[in-house]
Amino acid sequence: MPRIPIVTSGTVADVLVDTDIFIDHLRGAAALAPGKHRLHYSVVTRAELFAGSSATDAVSRLLSPFREVLVTRDVAERAGRIRRECGVRLPDALIAATALEHGLTVATRNRGDFEKVRGVRIRALR
Protein backbone atom coordinates (compact mmCIF):
# COMPACT_ATOMS: atom_id res chain seq x y z
CA MET A 1 0.00 0.00 0.00
CA PRO A 2 1.53 3.39 -0.96
CA ARG A 3 2.12 5.80 1.89
CA ILE A 4 0.73 9.34 1.83
CA PRO A 5 3.17 11.87 3.28
CA ILE A 6 1.07 14.60 4.86
CA VAL A 7 3.87 17.11 5.46
CA THR A 8 7.29 16.94 3.91
CA SER A 9 9.00 20.02 5.37
CA GLY A 10 11.27 19.82 8.38
CA THR A 11 9.07 22.08 10.51
CA VAL A 12 6.11 21.12 12.65
CA ALA A 13 2.90 21.97 10.83
CA ASP A 14 -0.73 21.93 11.84
CA VAL A 15 -2.65 20.03 9.19
CA LEU A 16 -6.38 19.45 8.73
CA VAL A 17 -6.78 16.11 6.94
CA ASP A 18 -9.66 16.09 4.44
CA THR A 19 -12.13 13.22 4.27
CA ASP A 20 -10.79 11.86 0.97
CA ILE A 21 -7.43 11.03 2.55
CA PHE A 22 -9.10 8.98 5.30
CA ILE A 23 -11.29 7.23 2.70
CA ASP A 24 -8.19 6.22 0.71
CA HIS A 25 -6.69 4.80 3.90
CA LEU A 26 -9.84 2.85 4.81
CA ARG A 27 -10.08 1.41 1.29
CA GLY A 28 -6.46 0.28 1.44
CA ALA A 29 -5.44 2.53 -1.44
CA ALA A 30 -2.89 4.42 0.66
CA ALA A 31 -1.71 4.54 4.24
CA LEU A 32 -1.32 7.75 6.18
CA ALA A 33 2.38 8.39 6.76
CA PRO A 34 2.77 10.52 9.84
CA GLY A 35 5.65 12.94 9.77
CA LYS A 36 6.62 15.93 11.83
CA HIS A 37 3.22 17.55 12.22
CA ARG A 38 0.08 17.87 14.30
CA LEU A 39 -2.85 16.26 12.52
CA HIS A 40 -6.43 17.39 12.92
CA TYR A 41 -9.74 16.49 11.33
CA SER A 42 -13.07 18.28 11.23
CA VAL A 43 -16.10 16.82 12.96
CA VAL A 44 -17.61 17.07 9.45
CA THR A 45 -15.09 14.45 8.33
CA ARG A 46 -16.24 12.19 11.18
CA ALA A 47 -19.85 12.52 9.94
CA GLU A 48 -18.87 11.83 6.32
CA LEU A 49 -16.84 8.75 7.27
CA PHE A 50 -19.62 7.32 9.46
CA ALA A 51 -22.18 8.00 6.70
CA GLY A 52 -20.13 6.09 4.15
CA SER A 53 -18.80 3.16 6.16
CA SER A 54 -20.36 0.31 8.06
CA ALA A 55 -16.96 -0.34 9.66
CA THR A 56 -17.52 2.16 12.46
CA ASP A 57 -14.92 0.53 14.73
CA ALA A 58 -12.28 0.95 12.03
CA VAL A 59 -13.27 4.60 11.55
CA SER A 60 -13.10 5.27 15.29
CA ARG A 61 -9.67 3.63 15.53
CA LEU A 62 -8.40 5.57 12.52
CA LEU A 63 -9.51 8.92 13.93
CA SER A 64 -8.45 8.33 17.53
CA PRO A 65 -4.85 9.63 17.27
CA PHE A 66 -5.96 12.82 15.51
CA ARG A 67 -7.26 16.03 17.09
CA GLU A 68 -10.95 16.62 16.37
CA VAL A 69 -11.93 20.22 15.53
CA LEU A 70 -15.54 21.18 16.17
CA VAL A 71 -17.77 23.41 14.07
CA THR A 72 -18.17 26.58 16.10
CA ARG A 73 -20.52 29.46 15.36
CA ASP A 74 -17.63 31.36 13.71
CA VAL A 75 -16.78 28.35 11.53
CA ALA A 76 -20.45 27.87 10.58
CA GLU A 77 -20.92 31.51 9.61
CA ARG A 78 -17.71 31.60 7.61
CA ALA A 79 -18.67 28.34 5.88
CA GLY A 80 -22.01 29.84 4.90
CA ARG A 81 -20.26 32.79 3.29
CA ILE A 82 -17.78 30.48 1.53
CA ARG A 83 -20.64 28.33 0.20
CA ARG A 84 -22.50 31.38 -1.09
CA GLU A 85 -19.47 33.14 -2.61
CA CYS A 86 -17.47 30.19 -3.97
CA GLY A 87 -20.15 27.62 -4.75
CA VAL A 88 -18.37 24.71 -3.06
CA ARG A 89 -20.30 21.91 -1.38
CA LEU A 90 -21.24 22.57 2.24
CA PRO A 91 -18.93 19.88 3.72
CA ASP A 92 -15.95 21.38 1.84
CA ALA A 93 -17.01 24.89 2.88
CA LEU A 94 -17.10 23.75 6.53
CA ILE A 95 -13.67 22.14 6.25
CA ALA A 96 -12.23 25.24 4.52
CA ALA A 97 -13.74 27.52 7.17
CA THR A 98 -12.34 25.30 9.93
CA ALA A 99 -8.87 25.52 8.38
CA LEU A 100 -9.09 29.30 8.06
CA GLU A 101 -10.43 29.86 11.58
CA HIS A 102 -7.74 27.67 13.16
CA GLY A 103 -4.77 28.49 10.90
CA LEU A 104 -4.52 24.95 9.53
CA THR A 105 -3.28 23.68 6.16
CA VAL A 106 -5.71 21.32 4.38
CA ALA A 107 -4.25 17.99 3.21
CA THR A 108 -6.45 16.79 0.34
CA ARG A 109 -6.68 15.28 -3.13
CA ASN A 110 -9.64 17.61 -3.71
CA ARG A 111 -7.52 20.62 -4.62
CA GLY A 112 -10.01 22.16 -7.07
CA ASP A 113 -12.74 23.09 -4.61
CA PHE A 114 -10.36 24.35 -1.93
CA GLU A 115 -8.50 26.53 -4.45
CA LYS A 116 -11.74 28.47 -4.93
CA VAL A 117 -11.56 29.65 -1.32
CA ARG A 118 -9.25 32.61 -0.81
CA GLY A 119 -6.68 32.16 1.93
CA VAL A 120 -6.89 28.38 2.36
CA ARG A 121 -3.46 26.75 2.45
CA ILE A 122 -3.48 23.43 0.63
CA ARG A 123 -1.17 20.45 0.76
CA ALA A 124 -2.33 18.69 -2.39
CA LEU A 125 -1.91 14.94 -2.53
CA ARG A 126 -2.24 12.68 -5.54
Automatic annotation (TrEMBL):
Its EC number is 3.1.-.-. The keyword Metal-binding applies. The keyword S-adenosyl-L-methionine does not apply. It comes from the Bacteria. InterPro entries: PIN-like_dom_sf, PIN_dom, Type_II_TA_system_RNase, VapC_family. Coiled coil: none annotated. Keywords: Hydrolase, Magnesium, Metal-binding, Nuclease, Toxin, Toxin-antitoxin system. It is an enzyme of class 3 (hydrolase). Residues 15-118 form the PIN domain. Mg(2+) binds at D18, D92. Its cofactor is Mg(2+). SUPFAM superfamilies: PIN domain-like. Toxic component of a toxin-antitoxin (TA) system. An RNase. HAMAP family: VapC_Nob1. Belongs to the PINc/VapC protein family. This is Ribonuclease VapC. It comes from Jiangella asiatica.
